[in-house]
């Protein structure tokens, strides 16, 4: 049973995950207000990295989403990232992307309210 508090949308796109001077190219598989699911990069370290920066290029727009993330979980081929901090421009673009894909602006408004309470 899925006990997620935030709706996820399928999203296929490239992203960069940055930690200090190191950057990994990866593919984003889905997004939510609380984070992202990515394909594990080929040279992913054995130990879980600390806070990183995720930069997602929106496919058809000259816009980039940027958020500070931490690793929530990993598997053989996937990494779940938890959004720790996101700037106002990025959250606005993310909200619009989620709104278009969910088709339910009231659900998204409730999730934003819940997110701001935590």
UniProtKB/TrEMBL annotation:
Domain PilZ stretches: 3-99
InterPro entries registered for this protein in UniProt: C-di-GMP_BP_PA4608, PilZ_domain
Function of the protein: Binds the second messenger bis-(3'-5') cyclic dimeric guanosine monophosphate (c-di-GMP). Can bind two c-di-GMP molecules per monomer. May play a role in bacterial second-messenger regulated processes. Binding to c-di-GMP induces a conformational change of the C- and N-termini resulting in the exposure of a highly negative surface on one side of the protein to a possible effector protein.
Name used for this protein in its record: Cyclic diguanosine monophosphate-binding protein
Subunit structure, as described in the record: Monomer in both c-di-GMP-bound and free forms.
Organism field: Rheinheimera sp. BAL341
A GO molecular-function annotation: cyclic-di-GMP binding
Keywords associated with the record: c-di-GMP, Nucleotide-binding
Stretch forming the signal peptide: none
């Amino acid at each position: 049973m899925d006990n997620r508090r935030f709706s996820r949308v399928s999203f296929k796109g490239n992203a960069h995950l940055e930690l200090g001077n190191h950057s990994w190219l990866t593919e984003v598989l889905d997004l939510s207000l609380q984070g992202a699911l990515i394909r594990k990069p080929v040279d992913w370290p054995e130990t879980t990295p600390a806070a990183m920066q995720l930069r997602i290029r929106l496919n058809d727009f000259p816009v980039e989403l940027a958020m500070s993330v931490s690793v929530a979980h990993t598997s053989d081929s996937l990494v779940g990232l938890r959004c720790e901090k996101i700037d106002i421009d990025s959250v606005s673009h993310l909200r619009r992307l989620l709104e278009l894909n969910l088709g339910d602006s009231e659900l998204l408004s409730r999730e934003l309210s819940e997110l701001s309470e935590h």
